[in-house]
Amino acid sequence: MLRRVAGPGCLRTGIRGTPAGGPPDGDRRRAAFDGADYAFPLMSTGEGKHGDDTPTESATASSPAKTGRRTGRRTTARRVRRLILLITVPLALLWVVDTAGNLRQQEAPPTEAAQEGAGQPLVTPTGPPDAPEERRARPGESHGVSVPPPDVGFARETEVWSADRTLTVIPGRSRVYGEGPVRRYLVEVEEGLPGFPRAFAEAVERTLGDERSWGGEGALSFQRVDEEPVDFRVTLASPELTDELCAPLLTNGEVSCFNGTRSVINQNRWVSGVPHFDGDLETYRVYVINHEVGHALGFGHVNCPGPGELAPVMQQQTYGLQGCEPNGWPFP
């Protein structure tokens, strides 16, 4: 159905239900764009007073053909803009959602496995920290580690006959343990021995730092150092090197000794102890340290005082107990 609208020579497709004569002047453009997708010129109907070749007031402002072309261009431009909006708005929304997801992934906290792996430290030194020499530990105190009854039973390593025949001083300095005159010592271990050299040094330090050791009752105090001057050395050596360090004493690769300024601990005795200690390796280790260090302090051998009594620490308990009970302490 075609209806005539304002302006001669131009018809527009009408809107069903629009009153004859079209909408009011203010709604003409809206009706044209809302009701029809485009406008087109018609041949002259002869109704105009001067025909299509005679300019009229409306024609002077804009001819029907030009008006139709402009309207068509505007309609097409608007359709293009609508199409662009229909395409770009969903794409923009997708981009926003995707970007927000990526940001959440980037800012997400680490997983439990990552937290456990972070922060986790790589190597922790086990040696005691350096300390001023004038700092004295209370009886039984050991650079932040309480002294036993000492548990020096480290992992039992296999026996050997020989190793590298090179002695290495274990680094580190302890506090002063005890109240009496200070006796300084260092710990050295033959390279190539099975076990942990630092663990041996810590066992020696804990033993001599205990109030039941030679520093008991305020007699002496002890400090481990890693350089001269020292009063004595405590050395862990293979049976072969023990024989050499103990000469001219005959150890036959079986026992420990004291020679010169060195208390030599036989690796195989440190690892296995002796049968008559009934598997009490901890007590034997305490005994062999205190016994050989006792020689460094000037003490000689003694015998069992009587059956059933505790063996004196300077008794040669490695060879037998003579009816006494095993004991590793000077002041038990």
What features would you describe in this structure?
This protein has helices at residues 28-35, 57-61, 64-107, 112-117, 197-209, 239-246, 267-272, 281-296, and strands at residues 2-4, 10-13, 40-41, 136-137, 167-169, 176-178, 182-190, 221-224, 232-237, 257-259, 262-266. It is α/β, with parallel strands linked by helices and 332 residues long. The protein folds into 2 domains: 2-102, no CATH class; 136-296, no CATH class. The N and C termini lie far apart (124 Å). Mean pLDDT is 72; it is low at 1-67 and 102-156.
Strand element count: 11
Instruction: List unreliable stretches of 5+ residues.
Output: 1-67, 102-156
Could you estimate the helical fraction of the residues in percent? 25-40%
Net shape: elongated
Please describe the biggest sheet, giving its number of strands, its sense, and whether it closes into a barrel: 8 strands, mixed
What is the CA–CA distance across the termini?
A: 124 Å
Counting DSSP H or I runs of 4 or more residues, the number of helices is: 8
H/E series, N to C? EEHEHHHEEEEHEEHEEHH
SS class: alpha/beta
User: If you average the pLDDT, what whole number results?
Assistant: 72
